[in-house]
Amino acid sequence: MRRRRRSAERKRDSAQPQQIDRGYSAMLDCVRMRQISIFLIALLCAMPAAAQEKLILDSDYTTIGDDGQVGVMAMQLHAEGVINLLGITVVAGNNWLPQEVSDALKAVDRMGLTDTIPVYAGARYPLVHDYKTMTYERDLYNIGGSWFRRPEPRDDELTAPLDGFAVKAKVQPQHAVNFIIETVKKYPRQVTLLVIGPVTNIALAIRMAPEIVPLIKRIVYMGGAFEVRGNTTPAAEMNIWYDAEAARAVFRQPIEQVFIPLDVTNTVPLNKATFDKITANKDHIIAKLLLASGFARALQQNPKATSNIYDTLALAYAIDASYATEVAEMWVDVDTNWGPSYGHTLGYRDAQKPAANHLQKHKVVLRFDNERFYKLYVDLLTRPLPVEVRRTNSR
């Protein structure tokens, strides 16, 4: 019995160190895991958040046309923190400049971002394409931009949208061109220029301060008609035709440039089904504006009517290039010779490139993910107003 007891005690005594070793090892594992967790948390906190797209919206602004729709969408994205909309620069194109500035100011008021999104007035006229020249084209093609809607009015002869003029928002004293130059220098290689009107402001900025050329992150345009018929003349798309000389001057610069031309916008029309989704809430001010638009009247006469929403695709691409499903690279130029081809956007594939070495190769979007785009389009245009700013945007 004594031998058995001593044997059991020896076994018990020999097992205790093993149990202690196992317990100590487990405690060390626990400590190591805690240390690793603390390290990973500290590392994640130290990592910078995903960089916001800093963006200047350069637009021939309208109340609720495609330019105005881009304004609504961009300001919603700004409020969400997806982009940092540094400002809206206005250029003549769809209308006379003072009317466009008035519409942009009201848009900022309407969105509740008066203290957040500044509006700058830019170029009043194209560089070369003057009234007399446009008159000839009107006679030839029965076309024309702001010039032929009405004679140029006094600056205070403005038309208010159905919800009235801006009350709080005021145009900035600084010229749009100077703002572009100053902002690009402040944020070198960080600012995307979303150009959805004539290119006049950008051309002037580059002429005044050529040193900004390598400092511009990229330019995304709605503009051009490469392999399809134009929408202003048989050869030319409106934004390029309006100031072809400005467009050519910028397209030839060594800047990353992306085109959302008629070639793709023609394939993404606004139809009644999508329009009905956006206007379903009749109390929403965006729905009210759209229901008072010419397209709403067109749908009443023909439910199968469609409309172009050109500029909105350019914004979608600017926030996520994967919306484009087919992209070509072309050497891009603009025809500035007076005649029926004035303002025609020229795109050469590698095998077609002219011998002259003054052109730059740019991206030209040819097809879009339509269904994914329509979801974004409806979502942003139907969100509540005024916007709720969910994330602080640094300036």
Structural notes for this entry:
Helix content is about 45%, strand content about 15%. With about 400 residues, it is an alpha/beta fold. The chain folds into 2 domains: about 1-45; about 55-270 and about 310-380, Inosine-uridine Nucleoside N-ribohydrolase, Chain A (Alpha-Beta Complex). Helix 6 (about 200-210) crosses helix 8.
Distinctive features:
Inosine-uridine Nucleoside N-ribohydrolase, Chain A, 15% strand, 9-stranded mixed sheet, two-stranded antiparallel ribbon, 11 strands, globular, 2 domains, alpha/beta, 395 residues
Number of helices: 14
Q: CATH superfamily assignment of the largest domain?
A: Ribonucleoside hydrolase-like
- Please list the strands of the largest sheet in the order they lie side by side: 3-2-1-4-5-6-11-9-10
**Distance between termini?**
87 Å
**CATH topology term of the largest domain:** Inosine-uridine Nucleoside N-ribohydrolase, Chain A
Strand content: 15-25%
The helix content is 40-55%
Biggest beta sheet attributes = 9 strands, mixed
Structural class, from helix and strand content? alpha/beta
Radius of gyration: 29 Å
**The CATH top-level class label of the largest domain:** Alpha Beta
